[in-house]
Amino acid sequence: MTNRPIIGLDDTFGARAQSLRSLQLRLLELFSEAGYEEVIPPLVERPDALKSGAGRFLADQTVVFTDPAGAGLLALRSDITPQIARIAATRLLHAETLRLSYSGPVMLARPELRGGSRQQWQTGIECLGVTGSSGDAEVLHLAANSMLSAGFKSPVLLVGHIGLLEALVAGSTMSLASWTSLLRRRSPDDLQAALEDQPLTEQVRAALLDLATGVADRAWIDARRHDFGAHFLHAANELLALVDEVGERMEGDVQLHADAAVMPRFLYHSGILFTGYADGVAHALLHGGRYDAMMSAHGRDMAATGFSCDLWAWLDAL
Fold it and tell me: CB–CB of 161/238 below 8 Å?
């Protein structure tokens, strides 16, 4: 039947459509006031442009098809950040720093949660060319203000660093992508099973279990920053310094906490990571972090950090 619904996709109309446009406008105005210029990339890209530097997470969520007009293989975007990286590395080469915002639909090859939606209305910002903690701090503040502007109560930002996990699993036989996927489940039993065949020290095994059980907070990071080598120490110092800097100037009732167990939604991050939560909402409301490596993959050596959210999920949570 041609009118049979597609699993994970739906129509939107009436009050829900109006609510989305209202929330979208509110956030885009907030971004504009902060100096971010809106960009509207196409819904379709070449697959390599979407997957460059993004790891298997993004590749697995990308729908690829053959263009009937003869352009070869094309892909529906499952994330807008790679498109912003492409634009910054090609169309906007003249600018040393870029502050860009966006809001539009993306489509996932499969739902992220069982019974969930494959369509998202991704909205966010990208801060490009601002090095060090300055860019990270700017993006964290805007992420906090976005949740407050939308009406979420008592927002919380959990901040981590991908370098912590990289240092811990450097001697393992599993890929970093496998570790991030495993630790995002926060299941000590699953992690214990995965550790059985890994050539890791008991100290590292205990640390990974701490991440899975949710006890790797600021005090944990501070106490162990010298235990796992120079890479771990550098990441820990960078993370704790940023949390101290931003936490002292956080707006409203937003809380900021360091957490070594924060994992990336897509594996293109190369430094600071963060997720946003709010009172009464069980799932993460936004994801963000630094992704300098993706810019390098697109041919431009440029600092890059940002965050994004799904407006459909925000409306449901509100």
Answer: yes
Annotated binding site: 79-81, 122, 126
Per domain, the residue ranges of the chain are: 14-317
pLDDT at 54 over 70: no
Rounded-to-integer distance, Cα 114 and Cα 292, Å: 32
Binding residues for L-histidine: 79-81, 122, 126
pLDDT tens digits along 56-113: 456 777 888 888 887 788 888 888 988 998 899 899 989 999 999 999 999 888 776 6
Class of 14-317 per CATH? Answer: alpha beta
**pTM of the full structure:** 0.91
Nearest to 81 by CA among 272, 268, 262, 303: 268
